[in-house]
Amino acid sequence: MTKERVTLGGKLSAVLVAAGSAVGLGNIWRFPYIAGENGGGAFLLIYIGCILLLGLPILLAEFAVGRHTHRNSVGAFKSLSKGWSFIGYNSALAAFLILGFYFVVSGWTLEYFIKSLSGDIAQYTSSAVNTELFRSFTLNPWRPVVYTAIFVLLTHVVIALGVQKGIERSSKLMMPVLFIVLIVLAVRAITMPGGLEGLRFLFTPDFSKVSAKTFLDAMGQAFFSLSISLGCMVTYASYFTRKTSLQATALNVVGLDTLVAVLAAMVIFPAVFSVGIEPTSGPSLVFITLPSIFSTMPFGAAWSAVFFLLLVLAALTSTISLHEVLTAYLHEEWHMSRRASAWCVTAATMLLSVAASLSLGAWNDFRIFGLNIFDSLDFVTANVMLPLGGLCTSLFVGWRLKRSLLHDEITNHGELRCRLFGVLVVLLRYVCPVLLLLIFLYNLGLFRL
Ligand code: PHE
């Protein structure tokens, strides 16, 4: 099996595809509003702490598992230990459920991109009007469903082209474009009147807004943003070659992911302050407040088209990675052809995401434990399955996996040095499990701070 399996080309491709999975709506849409709600600068510091203590070690652990086994996420854990194969199943199921709502938000970005092309988005300065536009769009019975479906098919096309042609090439193109556009937009936002105040908000820590919840929010965000415990990184690492340095790849991915999040915040906060909107406006920040800002800019329609194209691309590289987790699983574990596997995943996620989209409007009355389908998918993945998966992965790799196996993977069988290997083991054995157990129990509401 190892022989027939495709691999990713050079060193850069490994970084690009993994970063493509990590960089997504989480960085551009979610990070700025969570940071805004948690006091800006102070949150940034805590977030970076979480990335280093939690994100980096678990990312390395997932890379090691994926590359060692050269299998999909379920097969990888199964082949290492039957008893721990549930980590793989948990990740595949979580990937499926996340796709259910991620496709819906991705569909919104597509709608906003298309509407930007006709100049519709950058038209109104009043945030009340933009709020109404957003509401009427998400509540419309068919438009969001159509856009969601188009996004599912877009993802399918890339997956159907295969790992090398589809994923590698599209990531190679998308990631650099993303950076250039973000930098241009950041420069524009910072030079707007009042823009510097936004930068001050982002980079001056205000610890008075920090509470225990800030730490938990930062941990959750770090997790989601690095695509950890959804099998994405295990699956992608299974395509890495024996020469790929896991250490360098992980460091690059973490660096790029954090950089994109900070850059996105450097676009959004200066703009928010310049137009006079509260930085704590929450999840609507991108869809509701940015159009107001574009409308005050020269060539506003073009700016909004560029920005939402950026969101579409960032979302697409993430949906591809989630889809690939499931396609690789069906292909390798159920021995289906890659084509048939991809179609099965597309069909199943299409049904789920259409239901999630409808649950915001027509089907809003249908509730699971008081939440509509969209919200319950978000809740169960982010609050239960992600921390649980991370917890078990760190326990498994820290305690159960042979130390020499981990060392061989991290150092490419002794070819590379890893001075901090001892630190990595301590983080995986003690620090990650304790922190993750806390977040897991907190999210289940078993204790309150
Ligand atoms: N990391 C992606 C983001 O920041 C989301 C994602 C999560 C993608 C999990 C794949 C797996 O948006």
Q: What report would you give on this structure?
A:
- Helices cover 75% and strands 0% of the residues.
- It has 449 residues and is an all-alpha fold.
- The chain has one domain (11-443): Hydantoin permease, CATH 1.10.4160.
- Helix 1 (11-22) crosses helix 8, helix 3 (41-69) packs across helix 16 and helix 15 (338-358) crosses helix 16.
- The N and C termini lie far apart (49 Å).
- The model has no long low-confidence stretch (mean pLDDT 87).
Helix content: over 70%
Largest β-sheet summary: none
What distance lies between the first and last C-alpha atoms, to the nearest angstrom?
49 Å
- Structurally, how many domains make up the residues? 1
Mean pLDDT level: 87
Flag low-confidence runs: none
According to DSSP, the number of beta strands is 0
Assigned CATH class: Mainly Alpha
Structural class computed from helices and strand pairing: mainly alpha
The SSE string, one letter per element, is HHHHHHHHHHHHHHHHHH
Number of helices: 18
